[in-house]
Amino acid sequence: MKIFLTFSLLLLFTTTSFAQRKVQLVILFDTSNSMDGLLNQAKARIWEIVNEASTLTYQGAPVTFEIAMYDYGNSTIPATQNYIRKQLDFSTDLDLVSEKLFGLRTSGGQEYCAAALVSSLKELNWSNSPQDLKLVYIAGNESFKQGPISTTTACELAAQKHVLVSTIFCGDRLQGINLGWKTGSDCGNGDFFNIDPNLAVSQIETPFDDQIIEQNRLLNNTYIGYGSVAIESKSKQLSQDQNALGVSKAAQTERYLVKSKSSYKNDKWDIVDANLADSTKIATLKEEELPAEMKGMSVEQRQAFVKQKSEERSAIQKEMARLEAERRNYIASEKAKTTQVKSDDFGTAVATSLRNNAKTLGFD
Questions:
Q1: Would you say 35 and 170 are in contact if contact means Cβ atoms under 8 Å apart?
Q2: pLDDT given for residue 341 in this prediction
Q3: Which CATH fold would you assign to the domain 22-200+343-360?
Q4: Domain chopping of the chain, boundaries
Q5: Mind listing the pLDDT tens digit for each residue in 182-237?
Q6: Which of 107, 218, 241, 350 has its CA 20 to 30 A from that of 184?
Q7: Strand, helix or coil at 92?
Q8: C-alpha distances in Å from residue 60, one per residue of 20, 49, 130, 159, 227
Q9: Are 188 and 164 in contact (CB under 8 A)?
Q10: pTM metric for this prediction
């Protein structure tokens, strides 16, 4: 009995110690009439934020990164929903995250910040582990005190779930404090930022960007769709490449670097990622589910084909990692040359807060 108990405790300790840590990030966007600038900043910075999260590890092991998204304060949302709309449940589908963000449109409505917080805390599938990093960022420009739910109620619920609530006021810092945005972050154990939402995002182009863009073209050629959602999913991948291209070269490059990392997962439609997630998947696919390139292949031929594509992708990812390191050094060097104090924008606020809170919780 004593031996069994010892073994059980050892198993529990091992499972707890080596369970993959999770980072859960929720963004609540005010999409009332005056918030186009906020959305533009988010579109310019979203891949930089994801890239920041993608570099996190826990005791040297990779982490699972999930994003959810809401918008609030939009007149197209029914008043019965407190003008709050869930755009996306927790997801690892980063193309879908981009699609939802670029699909947001502004329209005047009532901004109920605490109610939006409570909706996200109640409706999403939050991790139960206090060792996971759970973050909510809410951005807007009206009083934080509006609506049917108090800030205190929202913060108490966040504390119960070990979720950190950070607030980003779009306007003057003192005005944000007076309107309750700092109170929201203080009681939510998060960070308070103020930004100028109409400020153009400052991004640094580097000599390595064009090489990274070319590597992404090669990377896309290693994505081989299978199953009923293959065409739609491949199209979505390319559409989000175009969305990033439409913002800036820096945003485009950041997206492509994210695509070179393990956090960019497409096992539901890409045969290479599917094989990485489950090596038995290739053998079980029906003929009609196979991509055109693999139809008529034996199981052995399928495995050889996927192995070749996997090796191609690994080589590209390795080269992109090298280019990313060079790019980061270049950007750091350029930033060091200026003594001008930079104002926060949406992306720098979230990325800075995410990094600092991750370190506090023991993430690398």
A1: yes
A2: 64
A3: Rossmann fold (3.40.50)
A4: 22-200+343-360, 209-336
A5: 999 999 999 999 999 998 888 899 999 999 999 999 999 999 999 999 999 999 99
A6: 107
A7: coil
A8: 11, 20, 19, 28, 35
A9: yes
A10: 0.91
